[in-house]
Amino acid sequence: MTLKTTETISHSGADTEPSWMVGLPLTRFIPKVHPHSDQIIEDVHAFFLEHWPFPNERARKKFVGGNFAYGLCASWPESLDERIRHACQLFTLLFLVDDILDDMSLDEGRAYNDMVLSFMDGKRTPNRDIPVEWITYDIWESMRACDPVLSAGVLETMAPFMHAQTASIRVKENVGLKELITATALYCAGLVVPQEDMALVAPLDDIWVKHLIYCNDAWSYDKELRTAQETNPEAFTKTWTDCSSVQAFSSVSIIMEKAGITASAAKRVLVFLQREMEALHENIASEVLAKKATPEVQRYIKILEYQMSGNELWTSQTLRYNFSRCQA
C-alpha cells in the first residue's frame, strides 16, 4: 500500500513496504509533490547541515533521513516557491527542536520552547553564535517580509502549539496543530479565505486532523516506543509489547488495549480509519461546494486533500519513523 514515487524513493530512502501494510486499501487521493522539490530539499538540507549543531555524524544522517522538507513539499505541492522554502525551514526547525526536547525534563523543555518563541516576533535580537536563536529569528524575518499579514496568522499559532509540546500531561487534542498547519498552508498558497467561508469548511478541518493523527500515530508508534524504552527501560518488557504512560494517548495503544490485538493489527485499523476519513471528506466537500463554490473554497478543499495524501506519503517513507528499514 505504501505510496511511492521516483522522488519519494530517491529522497527518503525507505522503499520497502513493512509487513503490516501488505494488502491494505490505497488512499483515494493522488499525491503530488512540489515541482521544485529537488532543489528546495537540497537547499534546506544544506542550510541546516552547515549551521545546526548536530552532535555527531549519525545525527546528521538521521536528519537527512527524516527529510522534513520532502514532507512539506508533498503536503503543499501547489505552494508559491519562496513560501514553501520558508515553511520547510520553519517545520524543519520545529522537528529539530522537538528532538532536543526528547532529552529534557518538562520544565527544561518549557524554558527552551519559551526561548525559541521569544525570537519569533522580531523584537529580541539573537546571539549570532547560537544557531537556534538566529535561525529562528531569520526565518520569521523572511516570512514577515514576504507577507506580513499571513505570516502573522502563522505566528499566532506558534505559542499554543509549542506550549502543548511540554504540557505535564500529553495533550490528546494536539492543541495548536490544526491552527498551525492551516495558517501555514494559507501562507504558502498566498490564499486569503473569508472567515465566513472558513467556518463553512470547518468540518473538513476536523476530518484532515483525524486523518493526520491516525496516520502519524500508526507510523510513529515504533519510534515513540523505542524512545520511551531507552529513557525508561523498566517500564517495558523485553518484547516492547507493554505500554507506559507516555503512550497513553496513542491511537495504537488505545486500540491495542480496547480490542486486545497486537500493535501491527492496531496500525492496520488506523489505515482503515484514514480511508473512512477520506470518504467522509469527499461527502462533506460536496455539501460545502453545493452551498458555496468560490475559487477560494475550492482551492482550500484541494489543499486539504493534498495535506492528507502528502502527509501519508512522507510518513510511510521517512526514515524518522522507518528506522528499522535503514540502520545508520
TrEMBL record:
Magnesium keyword on record: yes
Keyword tRNA-binding set for record: no
Source organism superkingdom: Eukaryota
GO BP: isoprenoid biosynthetic process
Swiss-Prot/TrEMBL keywords: Lyase, Magnesium, Metal-binding
First-level EC class: lyase
Molecular function as annotated in GO: metal ion binding; terpene synthase activity
Cofactor annotation: Mg(2+)
InterPro entries referenced in this protein's UniProt entry, alphabetically: Isoprenoid_synthase_dom_sf, Terpene_cyclase-like_2
Known EC number: 4.2.3.-
Family the entry assigns: Belongs to the terpene synthase family.
Name of protein: Terpene synthase
Taxonomic lineage from the root: Eukaryota, Fungi, Dikarya, Basidiomycota, Agaricomycotina
